[in-house]
Amino acid sequence: LQEGGLKYMPRDRFAPIQTPQDIVYLIGEILVLLATIFWILAVIASFYAGYLFLFSGGSEEKVGKAKKMFLYAVIAIVIGLMAYALPTLIYNLLDVGSGIWFRIRLRF
After folding, report:
1. Cα separation, 68 vs 72, whole angstroms
2. CB-CB contact of 56 with 21 (8 Å)
3. 3-state secondary structure 26-53
């Protein structure tokens, strides 16, 4: 591969990875999937915190647990926002608008 470059790489038109750019694209897709799962879990945690708060029955211990859980859910949502916004901000600052990450972000 080093001597001949990509022309000596075996080609299978059904293979999911055929070029180095495909590897970057695949990693980007996996990261988007993980971020989506993270968002779903953060929203579920916030709903669960609301449930704990509503059915605490006035118990200070249960109210404290619900508030702590809601704080953690808000922190998770903020981290999720930063996970989506930070790469876009960096690529805009570096003016890399035509890169593979820009194309991945445009799809969602």
Report:
1. 6
2. no
3. HHHHHHHHHHHHHHHHHHHHHHHHHHHH
Specify whether the CB–CB gap between 99 and 68 falls below 8 A.
Answer: no
Cβ-based neighbours of 99, under 8 Å, separated by 6 or more: 91
Q: Would the CA dihedral through 17, 23, 24, 29 be positive or negative?
A: positive
Q: Which residues contact 84 (CB under 8 A, 6 or more apart)?
A: 35
- In whole angstroms, what is the distance from residue 32 CA to residue 37 CA? 9
Residue found under tokens 């790469």 = 87
Runs of H (alpha helix) within the chain: 20-54, 60-94, 100-106
Sign of the dihedral through C-alpha 55, 64, 77, 22: negative
Note if the pTM is more than 0.70.
no
Q: Which residues of the chain have pLDDT under 50?
A: 1, 108
